[in-house]
Amino acid sequence: MIDHVSIEVSDLSASTRFYERLLKPLSMHIVTEQSDTVGFGKKYSEFWINLRKDMPEISTTSGAHVCLRAPDTAAVDEFYTIALEFGGDDDGKPALRPHYTHNYYAAFIRDPDGNRIEAVTFVE
Asked: How many helices and strands, by DSSP H and E, does the chain display?
């Protein structure tokens, strides 16, 4: 099982504000703050953003992405709406994805740096 993941961001302050909003529907909040990194989670830091001032632009064909579990479809929908409202881009509207599995409901976004982030829940 994966314990935590981290991504690079070019502006830690702006990305912290973005992710504070984005992760709230997933019940995640800031757990750890340091000068060049911020960790979000429920009880401990599961998702980290790390400052890389000179990071190269992320290609739109990048295969890397992070998927975070949402408690329900409303949280997936809110995650997607918040992302677009605060500078993220659409990478797949909230919907059932039966080609993954019959009950896979997810939304895909790109953060302001181009990182691919997904929220998923499994409907009963």
From this structure: 2, 8
CA distances from 19 to 58, 99, 108, 117, 124 (A): 18, 29, 14, 11, 28
Q: What is the mean pLDDT of each run of 10 residues along the chain (124 residues)?
A: 93 97 98 97 97 88 90 98 97 97 97 96 95
Instruction: Enter the DSSP assignment of 4.
Output: -
Q: Which CATH architecture has domain 5-53+65-122?
A: Roll (3.10)
Using DSSP's 3-state secondary structure scheme, residue 80 falls into helix
- The pTM score is 0.94
End-to-end CA distance of the chain: 24
Q: Where are the domains positioned within the chain?
A: 5-53+65-122
